[in-house]
Amino acid sequence: CVAPEFDGLDLLVTDDHRESVRHYCEVAKSKSDRERTGEGAQKSKTGVPTGTFAINPFNGDRVPIWVADYVLGGYGTGVVMAVPAHDQRDFEFAQQFDLPIRTVVTGGESSQQAHEGPGQICNWSMAMGLDLDGKSVDEAREILLEFIEREGKGKRCINYKLRDWLFSRQRYWGEPFPIIFVDGVAQGVPNEDLPVTLPEVETFAPSGTGESPLAVLDQWVNTTCPKSGVPAKRETNTMPQWAGSCWYYLRFIDPKNLTKVINPELEQYWMPVDLYVGGVEHAVLHLLYARFWHKVLYDCGVVSTKEPFQRLVNQGMILGEVEYTGYRLADGTFVSARRVDADELITLDTREDVEAVNVLNEDVEKEKESFVLKSDKNVLVHARAHKMSKSRGNVVNPDTIIEDYGADALRCYLMFMGPLEQVKPWNTNGTQGTARFLSRVWRLVMEGTGGGLAPAVVNSTSALAPG
Hints:
Layout (H helix, E strand, L loop, with lengths): L8 H4 L5 H12 L3 H5 L1 H5 L3 E9 L6 E7 L19 H9 L40 H14 L28 E4 L2 E4 L29 H4 E3 L6 E4 L7 H4 L2 H6 L10 H7 L5 E3 L1 H20 L12 E3 L3 E2 L3 E6 L5 E2 L4 E2 L4 E2 L7 E5 L4 E4 L2 E4 L6 E5 L13 H8 L1 H10 L7 E2 L2 H22 L18
Parallel strand pairs: 7-8, 9-18
Antiparallel strand pairs: 1-2, 3-4, 3-6, 5-6, 10-11, 10-14, 10-17, 12-13, 15-16, 16-17
GO molecular function: aminoacyl-tRNA deacylase activity; ATP binding; leucine-tRNA ligase activity
Protein name: leucine--tRNA ligase
Enzyme class: ligase
């Protein structure tokens, strides 16, 4: 399959397929990458044949060439060799268009879904004199790569998913780029003129032209080239927040240094960071960029450690309270969730339509690892906690919990929920338990001291003495 943006596509399309390919490419190019590869795209693959065939260099088979929008032009070469038995996207595409699905790795059931796990090569048929049957995928891959390079049929390469980083913003706030333009040619601002600072302005309103608000500040934009003295213009885009937030941990060590990012002696003493605690919001974006930034600083000789953080702990998310979903037939009768296709909202056996309804907490009870209706223990209900969000209406306000049970009860409940790394559902009833526990501790202390606790913390132990 080739991407709709593939440069050589016109050369691959036969005359009788040219119009259908042209129309398909127009539609595909109007979609975003997310639309082409996201959840919706997974359910229904689209594509059209080009009318031409590629020749498999190992066995001489003719392989039809298709255009498919799940192949992205900006990733790799924009061409994929489909392996439908062992790649789920290729499997769905082959099923959609009734293309052959040939198993070449043992394991799984290709008639149901692609087998993407480990296994041994099978059905090789001694192509090109290579005996690969029974070998692991890793072994076979290495043999094939060596064969391809030895025969001059190709060479190995590594494709990276990391894309170009869009590192500019059309807004006032953010670090200015130290760039000036002389007759349209970009030049770096000399080190002695750094840093370039933002001008003080009274309004941050957009320029109205799509440019940064800085673009309309002629006194700031128009400058002179420090080398030649000729007129120049400043870059008006600013850096995103990554520019300042990716190396903040270094400034924590040496926050008042006006001449260097960090004092080398302090950096060597304190770095790397022993423990970084961050949630899922940091796990991909911030930590990826912070690590990238740190490695650039290492290559520049600013820091002495290759890695910024020795250990990372990703604390689990606290979800909203568990929500219970039951399934009801048209006559109002509840049916067990075991009998229901929750996506299609039909019963699995009789294919009757069902309605998903919320079930109150007091109407269900736990039975082993599941939840059932109190009124009919044969009816299983689905129990699930969701991420807190205003749109879902399941946000728990800490102020309300503190008002009802106290701040200490809230703190204790958070600590009692389980290991820091685990995702846990919130349960307001749990704070009632911690409030009762703290009340018992308080009563125990009060009884042990005869009610003679000091009203304030003091340096003298005499204030705590009875009577």
